Every structure is written in structure tokens, then in C-alpha cells.
UniProtKB/TrEMBL annotation:
Phosphatidic acid phosphatase type 2/haloperoxidase domain: residues covered: 90-202
Pfam entry (one): PAP2
Transmembrane parts of this sequence: 6-25, 86-107, 132-152
InterPro entries for the chain: PAP2/HPO, PAP2/HPO_sf
Organism this protein belongs to: Actinomadura verrucosospora
UniProt keyword list: Membrane, Transmembrane, Transmembrane helix
Domain of life of the source: Bacteria
Protein name: Phosphoesterase PA-phosphatase-like protein
Length: 224
């Protein structure tokens, strides 16, 4: 693991710590939350909201499961004639769920669409789990797609699969903020954590590869 990778890890930790501290002490970022909330609540409507909601679906676990994860897992199992293609996705979903529940329980927070920002009350807005889904679960879906259609590996390289997941994660976070479904700081925390989780999945790929399929991947994952 190179210095550049460690540099990104350190930066992510710093961002998460700063954002969390700001939320706890009612700092300038939390005040910015209200500015963004008021803007999105009054300006992002109608057709713009319809467009934004398309991208929020990238972080909806139910939508991803219904239209991507479950169908692709079933096809992968049928192709491999084994339950192996289900193992990694199931473990990733379970660990991601536990992580999200754990993080959200630390600082319970109400959502912006309630027009209240209260900590330590009923709510689990902080941080944004949907944004993390946009990074992690989309990557899982892409890997399952390669399992089902191995020929795609010839043009959708390992770097490309990683980059797609990075883009969808950031798009999901931006869309959730514009749709007023999460405070900006909820999303900022997850935009820092999401790439770290994705990097961990990428680093573990050589060890988890036999669980996905028998055929070797054509390219190694690049360092991030």
C-alpha cells in the first residue's frame, strides 16, 4: 500500500472527524446545512426534482436489490451452478448494514425534510447510509454483472468498474442533498467514508476472486 493510498485514508479520517465535530458543536458546516436545506426546499421542485430522484435511486438498497443485486445473483448462481456468487454480496451487504446501524446510533439526528435539526432524538440521518450504498452496492452489482457476462471484462476493466462505483457514490450523495433527503453534513461524512470502503473491497479482490467465479479476471485492480 503506497503513500498516496495512506494519504487518502488520512484525509478521509480528517474530513469525517471535522464534520462530526462541527455537527456536535453546531459549527459553521451545520449552519450551512440550513442554507442548503432552504435552497433545495424552495428551488428543487417539479421537473428538477424528478431528475434528482432518478439519481437518489442509486443509493436505495431496495431498488438495487430488486433490479440488480437479486436478479444478477440468481443468474450468477445458475451460471456457476453453485452458491458461490452469492457469498461475497451477502457478506458485503451484512457488514455494510451493521456499519450503518452502528454509525447512525452514535449521533441520532432528524432529517431535513422534517424542517428540524435535532440531535439525540428519533432519527438516523447522520451519516448518509444511502450514499454509502451508492459506492459499495453499485460496485457489488457491477462485479455480479461480470460474473454473469464474463465477456464484459474485456472492455469494462477493473479500473473502470472501480471508477463507475466512485462516480455513482458521489452522484448519489449530491442527489440526496438536492432532494433534501439528507443534510449536507450527512452526505459529506459518507463521501469521505465511501471511497475508503470501496478501496477496502478493491484490496480484498485477489482473496475474494475465487468466491465470485472460476474464471480469472483479466486485469488487477489498480491502487487508489
Amino acid at each position: 500500500m503506497g503513500r498516496r493510498t495512506w494519504g487518502w485514508y488520512v484525509l478521509a479520517v480528517v474530513v469525517m472527524a471535522v464534520v462530526t465535530a462541527d455537527v456536535l458543536v453546531d459549527g459553521p458546516l451545520r449552519h450551512l446545512d440550513w442554507t442548503v436545506h432552504r435552497f433545495c426546499d424552495t428551488r428543487v421542485r417539479g421537473g428538477w426534482m424528478s431528475v434528482v430522484h432518478v439519481f437518489t435511486q442509486l443509493g436505495q438498497r431496495g431498488v438495487l436489490a430488486k433490479y440488480a443485486l437479486v436478479p444478477l445473483a440468481i443468474l450468477g448462481i445458475a451460471r456457476a451452478r453453485s452458491l458461490r456468487p452469492l457469498l461475497v454480496p451477502a457478506v458485503v451487504v451484512l457488514l455494510l448494514s451493521l456499519l450503518q446501524v452502528g454509525l447512525k446510533s452514535v449521533i441520532p439526528r432528524t432529517y431535513p425534510f422534517s424542517d428540524t435539526d435535532i440531535l439525540w432524538k428519533h432519527g438516523d440521518a447522520y451519516p448518509s447510509g444511502h450514499t454509502l450504498n451508492g459506492f459499495v452496492l453499485v460496485w457489488v452489482a457491477i462485479e455480479l454483472l461480470i460474473v454473469v457476462v464474463p465477456v464484459l471484462d474485456r472492455w469494462l476493466t477493473a479500473r473502470g468498474r472501480r471508477d463507475v462505483a466512485l462516480v455513482t457514490g458521489f452522484l448519489t450523495g449530491a442527489a440526496l442533498t438536492l432532494a433534501d433527503e439528507h443534510w449536507l453534513t450527512d452526505v459529506l461524512f459518507s463521501l469521505a467514508l465511501g471511497p475508503v470502503l470501496l478501496t477496502g473491497l478493491v484490496a480484498a479482490e485477489p482473496f475474494t476472486r475465487p468466491l465470485w467465479r472460476d474464471e480469472p479476471y483479466r486485469g488487477r485492480y489498480p491502487r487508489i
